[in-house]
Structure formats: C-alpha cells, structure tokens
Amino acid sequence: MNIDRSVPVWPQVADELRRRLDAGRYAAGERFPGTVDIAAEFKVSQSTAQKAVVALRKEGLLYTVLGQGSFVAEK
After folding, report:
1. Is the CB of residue 50 less than 8 Å from the CB of residue 14?
2. pLDDT one digit per residue (tens) for the chain, 75 residues
3. Which residues form a coiled coil (predicted)?
4. Domains, the chain, ranges and CATH?
5. CB atoms < 10 A from the CB of 41, how many?
6. Span between the terminal Cα atoms of the chain, in Å
C-alpha cells in the first residue's frame, strides 16, 4: 500500500485494514494484529496505528479484551 503523507495517514491505514476485514482475511473472533505489528507493516508510528484501530473499534468491526488485544467482531 502506498501512503500519501501529504494527508492524514491514520485514515489511510484504517481504510486498508477495513478492506482486509471486508475481504474476510480475518475471521470473526480472531485476534487482530497489534498496533506494533501494524505500525511496522505500514511504516507508521504506533500512535497512528492506534488511531486506525480505534476507528475500526468505533465502527464495530473490532472489540478489545483488556490484557489480550483486539479481536474481529461478528458481522
């Protein structure tokens, strides 16, 4: 994925992660990659990755279990 750094980055990361969720790359109930892994993959800061994950959580695509991470929500 090519990131356009002239505009906010986290929405672009969220869009790509959303596409992957919509394509079924992650099954419902499956643990979602952590922000450290997402940041490394997209070459962004961990705070940028966190903003993308928070956006997906607000959309109901992910849920978080304290101490365990984020998981894919049922559709």
Report:
1. no
2. 889 999 999 999 999 999 999 999 999 999 999 999 999 999 999 999 999 999 999 999 999 999 999 999 997
3. none
4. 10-72 (1.10.10.10)
5. 14
6. 25
